Amino acid sequence: MSTSRISRRRRAISMRVPAFPLAALMSAFSLTGCTTTQTGHGSVSQGYVAGSSGVTRFAKAERSTAPQLSGDTVGGETLNTSTFKGKVIVLNVWGSWCIPCRREAEYFAKVSKDLESAGQPVAFVGINTRDNNKQYAAEFEKNFGITYPSLFDPAGKLILQFPKGAASPQAIPATIVIDKNGKIAARALAPINDTTLLEMINPVLAEQ
Predict the structure, then answer these.
(1) pTM of the model
(2) What mean pLDDT, rounded, does the chain reach?
(3) What is d(CA 208, CA 205) in angstroms, rounded to the nearest whole number?
(4) Which option is the CATH number for 35-205: 1.25.40.10, 3.65.10.10, 3.40.30.10, 3.40.50.300?
(5) Average pLDDT, integer, range 15-43
């Protein structure tokens, strides 16, 4: 077979294979698997600062309004984040199947209990996603000593309520800190420890 006939055949085959949209591919990847991606050495853009720890902090004037989330919890109760008005809300997106989520779970358990004991106006809320069975999520909470509630969101519908862009929890695990006025103040797209978690929370708590 001549070179020209081979080339024409390859072009014909490639035209019959549909291309998967890049945006859809990235979306499927980010919501399906865990990530430990860092943000490099830090950058400043459009009112937010992305640091080397994977944490993005938003200036007060540039903060987006967080959605009010509601639904059933892993524990079988109902929850609406509007009941935490006036408090700093710490949202953690996790799944029992996610290895990086397991690495950070003990820190969330510790910090949430410490801040509660200190009487700080902070509410921790988990968003459990991609777990089709509440039993797996409940066992995860028990094993790691998680005492705050987690909304059960197997299909990721609650995550999609967040504004697109830098304020979106577009990975698992992800952490979002919401200020007392219901605005998104900080976001992390990587597993974090207790030090980083407090560095996200304390400046927001100190705001007037």
Answers:
(1) 0.76
(2) 81
(3) 8
(4) 3.40.30.10
(5) 36
